[in-house]
Each structure stands twice: as C-alpha cells, then as structure tokens.
UniProtKB/TrEMBL annotation:
The lineage of its organism: Bacteria, Pseudomonadati, Planctomycetota, Planctomycetia, Pirellulales. It comes from Rhodopirellula baltica (strain DSM 10527 / NCIMB 13988 / SH1). It holds the Pfam family Sulfatase. Residues 30-384 form the Sulfatase N-terminal domain. This is N-acetylgalactosamine 6-sulfate sulfatase (GALNS). InterPro entries: Alkaline_phosphatase_core_sf (IPR017850), Sulfatase (IPR050738), Sulfatase_N (IPR000917). Keywords: Hydrolase, Signal. GO terms for molecular function: arylsulfatase activity. SUPFAM superfamilies: Alkaline phosphatase-like. Residues 1-26 form the signal peptide. Belongs to the sulfatase family.
C-alpha cells in the first residue's frame, strides 16, 4: 500500500503546485478595465464640488489615485482614441485628424449611396498599426469593446479585425443616443455586422448591458481587457437643431438637477442653418450633466459586478476623457475647450484604481503623464513585451503612480492643423491662430500670463524642441490615411 499512498501524495502535491502556479499566473495577469468618456470637462467630477453627480467616479478617486496633470494626444475624438490604443503620437500612427464628413454641417442628409463612398465610411486606421488587444492577446487576454470605436467602418478596420474578440457599438464620431444614427445614417455594429436591433434604447444602457455580459462570460475564466468608450457626454449627432444643440439624456437623470425655466430659444445665428430652435445654455448644461450622471451609474454597475465576483481589487481600472470638455462642460480652472491646444482641450480628468498593484488610495498625483503611457503600462502589468519593431511614445507609468519615481515624461507636443501646443517641463507654448504665447504652468495653469516677451530664450528653446519633434514625426515610417506616401 505504501507505493500507492506515496503516489497519491505525489499526485496531490503536484495538483497543489499546479493550483499555486495557476493562481500566481493569474495574479501576474491582472484584468484591465479602461473607461473613456467623450468631451467631459476637467472639473466635471462630483468630488471637485461643482454640483455634478458622479458617485461611481468619486468612488474611483477615493479608492484610487486622481491624476491632475494628465494629457491626451489630440484635442478631439478620433486621433485621441487612436493614440491611446497604439501608444503612439497621432502624427506617427497616421490618425492626425478626424474621420468624419463635413456636409452635415450644412444640413445635408446623405443617401445610402452617397454615404457609402464618403471619407467617414471608407477612412480608417492604417492596418499596420498594432493596438492594445493585439498586444495583450499572447498573454491569454480576452478583449471586448462596447461603445464608440471611431477608427474605421469597413470590416477590415473594425475592432474584431484588429485584435478585439467582441464588439458592440458605433463606428463613427457621434450618434443620436436613441436612434443610433449619425445624421440619419444607422451606425450600430455587432462584431462585423450592422444592427438596428436595439434602436430606440438609450445607448449608454446598451454599452452597460454589453459590458456586464462580457464580464459574466469571461471574468474568472481568463484575464480580460474590457474597453468601454462611452459617447456621453458628447453632443447628439442629429440634423434637428433642438437635438443637435444639446446632449440627450434620460428624463430620470435630468430630474436629478434643478429644473430649467426655458428649454429652447430661437436664434438667427445657428451654425447649421438659420433661423433655428435650439437648447438654451441652461438646458444644455442640465442635459450634459444628466448624461454624465447616467454614464456614472453605468460605471457603478460595472464596478459592482466586478466586486460581486470578488475581482475588483485585482482589476486595473482607468478612467479619463478622450479630450477636453465642450458644450455644457466645466473645464475650470483651465483655459479653452475641445478642439483647442489650450490646456482645456488636452488636459483631462483621469482616475486609476488598482489596490493589488499598490496604487495608493485617495491620493492626488500631480506628475506629468499622458494617454501614450497606457499601452506600455498595460503590457508591463500583463507581462508581455510591446510589439517588436514598433516605436512607442509612452512608457511604463506604474513606478510613478506608486510614488517610487518621478515621471520620465519631460515634454509633449500637439498639432491640430495650424494649432500648436508644446510643453517642455513647466513651460507651454501655444499657437492658436492669432492667439497664443508662452506660459509657466506651475504658476499659471489658466494660461493667462504670456511670458513670450519676458522669456524669449525659453520660448526659443520650446520652439526648437517642437521643431525637433516635428522632424521626427515626418521621418517616421509613414502611415495612412492622411499622409501622402
């Protein structure tokens, strides 16, 4: 009997070792939840005291770290999203402007035949670019995206053709929250197939539903990367001025804010055709806040589901806005807004929670960090190497978030058409048409005091660093869709 008992003990020991190894392996591959809002203001977190209601985001700030000096790579949707998924400047990955059509700006509704050959339909990210889910896949990650894609509508450009395993959402820069149309064109897609099955349902609810389904299917079975890019609180994409001039939100969330006396007004100076009946500033502000609060409730449901599965503390949770706020947003104390290279267009709220990774709770971190850091940081946490031969513009930020080291980032550059932003250390040079100047961000976060005349040598230095960056971008391996090669 002794040989049998010995063999049994050996088998049990082997099984225990395998279980320990499996547990260690899982611990080495944390789950990743990346949540991105759309056009949310720098000051639009409840805990900052401006009256907006965001209990889930406030929870993330209380249980994690809030970054105050965090930037995105472009002041509007498409290039910002391409950079956070590639870890590369827009000028390097090829998405350095918007993939959108201009005709709806003049009230034009496309026929299906017209729309099929427009740039918004056929443009997309260069297929040679490697994005986050493809980087994480060798470590066994299942990846899902539910929300706004904005990087190409053709099948070869959709998320499940680029490394994601599961996709439900819309493919362009904005939609009507209920019809899921962009200026009359249906835009919702499941994996590779267009769908109108959920038409009429507020899209934030749909993205919440799909994220929870994904967690129920994968959480605990394999490590996951869950990307939830909401379109809230982006203005609604509609040719109807009363809809387009505000943000759609469910009535129950509007009711959480003080009533608005006058909902609409008639204007003779409407950008998309006059005269027009549009939302008043007060209604737009209320609607914007209601959309944020509805999104926050969806985020709360996702966090609660992870907590119920006892997986929240082992999951990396990162939240930020894709660019600065617009419409009803509050970017204070920053200057400017979305589409501008002032701080209000590129510096955004960011929250990071990961107790198992020793990210401190209730801490405010003022280090200079950007969305370019996401890909190398997630890869480092997952124990995978960045894609070989690909030049990344970010770095592993975990030592900085743990307080073990200062941020390696010393400079960052932005170019939106003829609008320029260049930050080197504490100094920021802005060129916004005839406006701009040199600003000391340590003393002047609101960019009010132009130091160009007082510090010409610093201005020359920052401009030279920008020129060096521009030369590097022009010498990079060319990528479409905008670059001529």
């Amino acid at each position: 009997m002794q040989p049998i008992r010995s063999w049994t003990n050996h088998l049990l020991m082997t099984l225990v070792m395998l279980l320990v190894a499996t547990a260690a392996s899982a611990a080495d591959r944390p789950n990743i939840l990346l949540i991105v809002s759309d056009d949310q203001g720098y000051n639009d977190l409840g805990q900052l005291g401006n009256g907006i209601i965001t209990p889930a985001l406030d929870r993330l700030a209380k249980e994690g770290t809030r970054l105050t000096n965090f930037y995105v790579a472009w002041p509007a949707c498409t290039p910002s999203r391409a950079s956070l998924l590639t870890g590369r400047y827009p000028q390097r990955n090829g998405i350095y402007d918007m993939i959108r059509n201009e005709a709806p700006d003049y009230g034009h509704r496309y026929t299906p035949e017209e729309y099929a050959v427009t740039f918004e339909r056929i443009g997309g990210m260069d297929e040679r670019e490697v994005i986050l889910p493809a980087v994480l896949r060798p470590a066994g990650y299942k990846s899902g995206i539910f929300g706004k894609w904005d990087l190409g509508a053709l099948q070869r450009m959709l998320p499940t053709s680029r490394g994601f395993d599961d996709f439900y959402g819309f493919v362009n820069t904005g939609i009507d929250y209920f019809t899921h149309e962009r200026y009359g064109v249906p835009c919702m897609v499941r994996n590779l197939e267009p769908t109108e099955a959920d038409k009429g349902t507020y899209c934030t609810y749909l993205f919440q539903r799909e994220a929870l389904r994904f967690l129920d299917e994968h959480a605990g079975n394999e490590p996951f990367f869950l990307y939830v890019p909401f379109n809230a609180p982006h203005n609604s994409s509609s040719l109807v001025p009363t809809i387009r001039s505000s943000v759609q939100a469910p009535d129950q969330f509007k009711a959480m804010y003080p009533p608005v006396e006058v909902e609409t007004r008639v204007t003779d100076r409407y950008r998309y055709g006059s005269p027009a009946t549009v939302a008043t500033p007060q209604a737009r502000r209320r609607d914007y806040r209601a959309a944020v609060t509805c999104m926050d409730a969806a985020i709360g449901e996702i966090l609660d589901r992870l907590e119920a599965k006892q997986m929240l503390d082992e999951t990396i949770v990162v939240f930020f806005s894709d660019n600065g706020g617009s419409g009803g947003a509050d970017n204070s104390p920053l200057r400017g807004h979305k589409a501008q290279t002032w701080e209000g267009g590129i510096r955004v709220p960011c929250l990071v929670r990961w107790p198992a990774g020793q990210i401190p709770a209730g801490v405010v971190n003022d280090e200079f960090l950007t969305s370019l850091e996401l890909l190398p940081s997630f890869a480092a946490a997952a124990g995978v190497e960045p894609p070989p031969g690909v030049v990344l513009d970010g770095f592993d930020w975990w030592p900085t978030l743990r307080g073990e080291a200062e941020s390696p980032r010393k400079e960052m550059f932005w170019k939106r058409r003829d609008q320029i932003g260049a930050r080197v250390g504490q100094w920021k040079w802005v060129q916004m048409g005839e406006q701009g100047g040199l600003f000391n961000l340590e003393e002047d976060i609101a960019e009010k005091n132009d130091q160009s005349q007082a510090k010409p040598e610093i201005l020359a230095m920052v401009k030279e660093r920008y020129a060096n960056w521009l030369r590097e971008m022009e010498a990079a391996d060319p990528r479409g869709p905008f670059r001529d090669f």
